[in-house]
Every structure is written in C-alpha cells, then in structure tokens.
C-alpha cells in the first residue's frame, strides 16, 4: 500500500484541525489534504479560514467543513462536539493561547483562558474522539507542544506549564492507546516562523527556527512511531542539553535569557 493510501486508511476519512487558519495549522491542513483526508477546520477568523478552505477544495479532491468558534469558549466547544457527525480519524490540536508577561502582571481572565484553550478543550476533544477511534480500532491524535514546556519558562510560565501538560498527556495516552491501534504524538517544537511567533519575537530568528511546513512534515512522519517528536536537529540537541545535561536552575535561566525580550 502506498504511504498516502496507508495514511488515509489509518487516519481518515476526516481530520479535525483545531486552530487551522494560519501558521502550523494551515500547514497541517495542506499536508492532510494532500494525503486525501477530508477536513474539519476550526478557527476564529472567518475570512482567513474561508480563504484557506477554498484554496484546499480547489487544489485537492476533498471535502472541507469550516467552524468559526473560540476554542476558549466552553459552550461553543460543547455545541461543536455535539454537532460532530463525521468519522474523524485524526485530531490535530494546534491552537494555543500564550499571553506574554510576568505572572504578577497577567490578569486572571488570561490565566483562565490558557487553561481553557490549551488544556480543557484539547482534553474534551481527545476524550470525545478517542472513544470512537477505540471502537474503530484506528486513529491518531497530534498535540502541538513546545520546548518551553520542558523546564520552567519565565515570562510565559503558565503557557509553558500548559504545554508540559500536553506533552505528558500525549506520552501517557501513547502507551495506553498503542495496543488499540490509536497513535498519539506530542510535537514538542522549538521556534516556528508563524504569524503568532513573528509578532512576539525579535526581528532576528532564534537559533533552530523552522518553517511550519518542515514541522508538519517531520510530525506526520513520526506519528505512530514515537510518543514525542522535536522537529529539527538543532532543537533536538537543545532539548537534550536543557533536559538531560544542565541543572534545572541553569536551564530556567537560559530559557529566561530567550524569553525576556518577547513582546
Ligand atoms: N510558533 C512557535 O514558535 C511555536 C513554538 C512551539 C510550539 N508552538 C505551538 O504550535 C501551535 C501553533 O502555534 P502558532 O504560533 O501557529 O499559533 P497562533 O499563531 O497563535 O495560532 C494558531 C492557529 O490557531 C487559531 N487559534 C488560536 N486561538 C484560537 C482560539 N481560541 N479558538 C480558535 N482558534 C484559535 C488561530 O486562528 P484564529 O486567530 O483565526 O483563531 C491560528 O489559526 C501552538 O500550540 C503553539 O503552542 C508554536
């Protein structure tokens, strides 16, 4: 069976991409459309999402369903979940909320939104979709995580902790679900050139910065073979140094050197 056919058999016929309109989410949409999966795309900005959807439908023989909603709004998420009537073989949870600032300056509403967008909604979607994947004995879950979550990350402390939650959740579920033929993977990314990253970072790229397409390519290749993946050899080396070689205090300090100028 060809690789594309295998992918569609294993993870189709529909994929749900939460946070699809641009950056890594748009790159996942393109790569999955290329593999022949029908797509359920979610984002808040209607115009950006519609343009992406129209482009995909014109380039590939697939169906695309658009949902304009805020993944931080629990009643919209519950409405979405109860409206889902397609056979979804792949969930990509890409959206994240990452306010920048020291903890003392972050309003409680922003902290709550980190928990909603980065933790509560992915948990709900994973629970809903894995139930039917387990029944069908196939499927996949991809959670976008971050190297900021492998140690404390000042100035993005709560976001980083939420990413750590996603990585650890993916690892546990990877083990629980692998014998049921449901693949789980956390993509523990370093810096990626997305509109969100470009807005908050300095003019110069951080070392190891990748384009969204490179991240997506490596992630889809790793799905089914490991619980976590860090795209890019520089980032894998940095992860090894930060998590295995350096004392925690030093790793946190190095992280702060990188995050202190974020805006
Ligand atoms: N960029 C990096 O350097 C980097 C590094 C490590 C990890 N990551 C992870 O990679 C993922 C994507 O990062 P990114 O930089 O591409 O993020 P982003 O620019 O903030 O947005 C990603 C996508 O999610 C959608 N989205 C965001 N919040 C949403 C919400 N509340 N409801 C519905 N849709 C929402 C956005 O569309 P709308 O605005 O239209 O809603 C957009 O399509 C995140 O999980 C992030 O933690 C990124």
Briefly, what CATH class? Alpha Beta
The hetero molecules present are: NADP nicotinamide-adenine-dinucleotide phosphate
* CATH H-level superfamily: NAD(P)-binding Rossmann-like Domain
For the secondary structure, the number of strands is 7
Give the strand content: 15-25%
Mean pLDDT: 96
How many helices? The count is 10
- Written as H for each helix and E for each strand, in order along the chain, the element string is HEHEHEHEHEHEHHEHH
- CATH architecture descriptor name: 3-Layer(aba) Sandwich
Assign the CATH topology.
Answer: Rossmann fold
**Cα end-to-end separation:** 48 Å
Strand order of the largest sheet: 3-2-1-4-5-6-7
Number of separate domains: 1
Q: Give a quick account of the main beta sheet: strands, pairing sense, barrel closure.
A: 7 strands, parallel
* SS-derived structural category: alpha/beta
As a percent range, the share of helical residues equals 40-55%
Shape: globular
Report the radius of gyration as a whole number of Å. Answer: 18 Å
Low-confidence runs: none
